[in-house]
Amino acid sequence: MNFENMKTIGICAHSYEGGSLCFLTACRRGADVLGPHMHPNIVLSAIPMGLSMAAWESDDYAEIGRHLAQGIDQVAKGGADFFVCPDNTGHIVLEKIMDDVAIPGLHIADVVCHEIVANGWSKIGLLGTNWTMTGTVYPNVLAQKALSCVVPDETTRAQIDKAIFQELCQGIFKQETITLFQRAIEDLKANGAQCVILGCTEIPLIIHAKNSTLPVLDSTRLLATHAVNYAMSDSPLPKKGWIRNF
After folding, report:
1. Do residues 94 and 149 both lie within one domain?
2. Is residue 237 domain-resident?
3. Residue 240 lies in a domain
4. What is the DSSP string of 119-161?
5. How far apart are CA 168 and CA 160, in angstroms?
6. Which of 68, 69, 174, 189 has the fewest C-beta atoms lying within 10 Å of its C-beta?
């Protein structure tokens, strides 16, 4: 494909660890397909997540949406044709503002569900922030495909949530935290899960196929890979909203 005809990807980071992993994965996927040092054009925005943390704690979605929309506006003005947000929890709010942003987006749960269907799994384990594990972002998408979702118990959810914000999002990786996630995955498997969604973009920094007892769905790398594939495709862009033809 002619480079000039490729779509430009916008990456709207919420946390810098997840955003960095998404960016690197997109660049590497591009090089795998296009050759060394090549990838579709990428525009990156990184509004500090710290500006939104108090709003997350108070469920002030309007304030969170303001920051997320600012990031989307930045990449749109930088020439992005569509955006991805490598933050699963952020999609709770993105779903509420999509009609008001300038460019279409690729929904992280749609991308993960695409992979689940391709593998034929039906009962899915989910790890992420407490907002993601108890929210509707993944259950809604999975239900459309008649797939069920199982999450850890309340105590484990609280431990995982704390580890994500106090450690993983800040680039702190401890062996005891890896063990916490591994045990959570073992519990999900015992409850019938056939695979596990790493539904926080930092979890893949410590959990992967080699140290998990369940097949993993790395939401960060899947999102980046599908974004690159879509950027290189001839699929037409919708004017607004979520991209469904990836």
Report:
1. no
2. no
3. no
4. HT--EEEEES-HHHHHSSHHHHHHHHTT-EEE---HHHHHHHH
5. 10
6. 174
